[in-house]
TrEMBL record:
Residues 65-216 form the Cupin type-1 domain. Disulfide bonds join C34-C51. The lineage of its organism: Eukaryota, Viridiplantae, Streptophyta, Embryophyta, Tracheophyta. GO terms for molecular function: manganese ion binding. Its main location: secreted. This is Germin-like protein. SMART domains: Cupin_1.
Amino acid sequence: MPMTSLLFLGVLFLLALTFPVAIASDPNPVQDFCVGVNTPADGVFVNGKFCKDPKLATVDDFFFTGLDRQRVATNAVGTNVTPVFADNLPGLNTLGIAFARVDYAPNGLIPPHTHPRASEFLIVQEGTLFAGFVSSDQDGNRLFSKILNKGDLIVFPVGLIHFHVNVGRGPAVAFTAFNSQNPGLITIAKTVFGSNPRINPNVLVKAFQLDPRTVMSLQTKF
C-alpha cells in the first residue's frame, strides 16, 4: 500500500478515536471559569452568557443551597423538578454539567422525554422508582427498564427516550446529573400533540393509527 494511503488511513483512525470524545459533552473551556451574567458590561459572550470579570467572581457564584428541602409535587403528572443550571448557578457556565432534584408524589411521573445534548444519571434518594429508556429504531426499539430503590443509579444515554415513575407507597426523591450545561428537553407527548402551531391532525392520525377524534382530543390536552 502506498505511503500516502497509509498516512491517510492513520489520520482517519485518529479522527475516529477523538471524534466521539469531542461530541460526548460540551466543549472544554479555555479559562478557569466563566461565571454567567446577563449584562454585556465588560463581558465576553460564551455559551449564551456573558462572562463576569474573573476578578469579581465569588464563592457564591459556585454555590447552591436548599436541595435537602422537600418540594410539593402538584403538577399534572405529580412531580416537581428543581433544576440547578447555569441560569440559577452562574458558575456552571462553560463547565459542561447540570443537576436537578426531582420530587415525586405517589404515582408521580416524569413522562417519556429526551435530552438531545446530554446523557443523564438518575440516582434514587428516597422511595422506589420504575425507570427505563428505549433504544433507537436501528436497535429495534428495545426497552431497558429497572425497579430502582434508595441508592440505585441508572444511566440514560444521550438522545434516547426515557422516563421514571414513582411506584412506591409514598413520596420519592431522586437526583439527576447531565454532561451538558444545557441538555435540552423534548417531552414526547407535549411536542407531538402540543406543538405551536399544531401538527395537522391527519398527519398524527396516520402516524399513530388513531381515530381523528382521539387525536383532536389529545391536542386539546397539551
